[in-house]
Design goal:
The protein has two domains: about 110 residues, 50s Ribosomal Protein L17, Chain: A; about 60 residues. By secondary structure, the chain is mostly helical. It is built from six helices and three strands; from the N terminus they run αβαααββαα.
Length: about 250
């Protein structure tokens, strides 16, 4: 009787189903993850896991004849020598520490356009990472001591050449930024100096004019005094002459 043996029929005959699962298995071995319908993914899981078990048996067995036997069984199921070689030579180490459960299925939210079939992702389970040992909680005193040691080490370390180069570049850029400012300051100072010199010259001219006027007035006074002296001398001389004549 064939009771309870109608799982994963996929609506096709036996030959079609065998070739379909073989092609899906080869694409999964080559890519590591494929997207297909949920029904095909569920049908592919037991098929590919049995082939992986053949690869593990060949890897653990030292008899060359048995290794060849397992490899030929896998070739008869997958029908692709390249995929079988990749599985037996490269991927088998990934599953050596696992006892079953070599694949994982993710259901996708969006169905397929056209017939609204449920879609899923099927992929190989990666090797489990080794858990890192938990670090012991350090006390506050040890943390402070480590921070102090770090600060001292940073203060004692010399400056790298790269930092010096960056510092020199920053100085050059600062000088370049300051040069137009200095030029503007120098131009402003020169204009202020010219204005001050012009104002000083005007003040000197204003001061010199009254001095010249005062000098001219003094000369006029001197001349007038000289004239008066000469006139008084002449008058005195005429008086003396007249007195001599009388005598």
């Amino acid at each position: 009787m064939r009771h309870r043996k109608h799982n994963h029929q996929l609506g096709v005959k036996t030959a079609h189903r065998a070739s379909l699962l073989a092609n899906l298995s080869c694409s999964l071995i080559e890519n590591g993850r494929i997207k297909t319908t949920l029904a095909k993914a569920r049908a592919l899981r037991p098929f590919i896991e049995k082939v992986i078990t053949l690869a593990k048996n060949a890897h653990s067995n030292e008899d060359i004849s048995k290794k060849i036997h397992y490899r030929r069984l896998a070739i008869s199921r997958l029908r692709d020598k390249k995929s079988v070689a990749k599985l037996f030579d490269e991927l088998v180490d990934q599953f050596s520490s696992r006892n079953g459960g070599y694949t994982r299925i993710y259901k996708l939210a969006l169905p397929r356009l056209g017939d609204a079939a449920d879609m899923a992702l099927i992929e190989f389970v990666e090797e489990a990472e080794q858990k890192k040992p938990k670090k012991k909680k350090s006390s506050k005193k040890s943390k402070k001591a480590t921070e102090k040691s770090k600060d001292e080490s940073t203060s004692e370390t010399p400056v790298d050449s790269s930092e010096s180069e960056t510092g020199s570049k920053d100085e050059v850029t600062k000088e370049d930024d300051e040069s137009p400012k200095d030029a503007q300051k120098s131009t402003e100072e020169s204009t202020v100096d010219t204005e001050e010199t012009a104002s000083d010259e005007e003040d000197q001219v204003d001061d010199s004019t009254p001095v010249a006027e005062s000098d001219s007035e003094e000369t006029e006074k001197m001349e007038s005094s000289a004239d008066t002296d000469s006139s008084t001398g002449e008058v005195s001389s005429t008086e003396e002459d007249s007195s001599d004549k009388k005598d």
